[in-house]
Amino acid sequence: MTRLARLFACTVFLSGIVTPGSPLRAGDWTQFRGPTGQGISTAKGVPVHWSRDKNVAWRIELPGKAWSSPILLRGRLYLTTAVPGDGDTQVLRVLCLNAENGESIWNVEVFRHGAANKHPKNGHASPTPLTDGKHLFVHFGTNGTACLDLDGEVIWRNRELVYDPRHGSGGSPVLTETSLVISCDGYDTEFVAALDRATGKIRWKTPRPQHEGKTFSFTTPLVITVKDKTQVVSPGSSYVCSYEPDTGRELWRVHYPLGYSVVPRPLYAHGLVYVCSGFDTPRLIAFRPTGSGDITEAQVAWTKRESVPNSPTPIIVGDELYMVNDKGIASCLDARTGKQHWRKRIGGNYSASPIYAEGKIYFQSETGKGVVIRAAKAFTLLAENDLNDRTLASYAVDDGVLFIRSETHLYRIEEND
Asked: Which strands, in side-by-side order, build the sheet including 174-175?
């Protein structure tokens, strides 16, 4: 196996998504940022060039409005949406589509709730679904969490995770062997919770550390293994904390004072965890996930302040870390030391997180421009591809295919023969 393939296989195992007997294909894109949770794909022949009229195998209009990213399992796409109902209600639905032709397989209502004003870059269905290969887990923030089978039958619902999400809910859950772990960082209260995978009942609920400054955040946890022990790493406002997956006991914390509205997902490579500290002055912090209590002084390896994203999650390929900030400045750093290899303005504003496939990094701007660069220590632009359609969701990917969700449509991008 190549070094990257070994890294991919190891990270899939650590991610908590693949359980014994799970019938997943190598090409399945099973959660936010793929099976590793870190944006790495082993797909081959992923398109490099497209436009609104070029290399679009199909484009379908989606019902309602949402910013959740699509996931892919054995030829089926799953995604969530919010459709206006009677009066001021929103109907929260789960969609299953045929990945080959975009045709609807099923469309199921899971929750209804009274509509409330949302942030222009958020909505009622922003968290991304995830699957263990047998079940589909969907999360709509404080409006509810549910488990469905792959035919669309609801197995359980839970509406007990109550907090003020301020600008709506954005973070997606993560799976451990027993639980669905969710960051719940509201304006009024902050905690991390675990729901039983089989029943949806709350297994544990751990308060965040007390801190000064604003409280709300929108992050997705990451499951890692350190010294043969599993941890759930969950950033929030002012702190990133690690939790024991079975009990919710806090293992360690790293402090970034006054950071809030944290969106990027953590990364784990080279024995380091990487987190972004959120608004107003973002920092990228790399640290060793060992020790107990506050490990800020003892375990932080390096910190980067220039051109760090508020929203898009960085990506690590080999020894390099790539990122784009919200204002379109892309950077490449040495992942071990934080040393900058290059920094380049690629244009536009960015919320979606990049992916890696076949030696290339793919970025997607908020106006629908896909920028493809070579994954290397020197900047090389390979393509700029404009869909001219607002895009905040992140990619799903398979061999020869990109799936891109816009404000109104879902695209299958595929090279024409």
From this structure: 174-175, 179-185, 190-196, 202-207
